[in-house]
Amino acid sequence: MNILISQRDEKTAQYIANGLKELGHRTNYVESLETIKVLESLTSYDLVILDTNVDDISGIEICRYIRQQSKHTGIIFISNDDEIQIKLRAFEAGADDYLIRPFAFLELVARIKSVMRRKDHVVSDDENILKVGSLVLNYHTRQVKRGDKNIELTTKEFLLLEYFMKNKNILLTRTIIKEHIWGIDFINDTNIVDVYITHLRNKIDKGFDTKFFYTIRGAGYMLKG
Asked: Which residues form a coiled coil (predicted)?
C-alpha cells in the first residue's frame, strides 16, 4: 500500500514508517498537515495516518478535507488526545479508526488491516478499474490491457503506471515520481525513473501509432489521454 504519515512527533512517524516499510508498504512523511492540501495526487494514497494537531493545524480539518477528496482512502488517527469529544469529532470528519499513544506496532498493523478490509469490501468492480483511452488497469486483480493486448508488468511498473493514470495529462517531475513510488529517502541522483519509463514505453506504446507516454523536456513526464 501507499501510506501517507503526518505526526507531531517525528520519532513516532519514523517508527511507524520503518515498521510499515519492513512489511513492504511505501510510506511518505510530511511534517506539516497543510502540505497535505497541496499534494498533487492525494488520492494515490491508500491510507493516511494523522495526528489531531501538528504545528497548531487541525488534523480533524485535514481529515475532513481528505474525505471530501476520496471516500475510499483509509484514515487512522494516532494521537495523545484521549478526550471523547475529540475522538467523536475525528470520526464525524471521516476517520476510520483512532489509536492512542503509546501503542504497540502490531496493534496498528491489525487496525490497518481491519480498515482496509472494510474499504475493499465497499469498492465496486468499476471503481477498481482505471481507464485512459484503450489502456485499462485493474488495481484489484493487477491486470493491465491495451485494447486486446494483455500487458505483463512488474510490481514497480504497475505502481508507476497506476500513478500516471491517476494523474493523466498532468506533468510529473522525476522528484515527485521518486517520492511516491520509491519513497522520500531514495537516492536523488539515480536515473531509476528514466529506466522504468523506458520499460513502460516498450510494453505499452511500442507497436502502436498512438502514444501514451510523453517526455516534457527539462521537466518530467506525462501520460496523455
From this structure: none
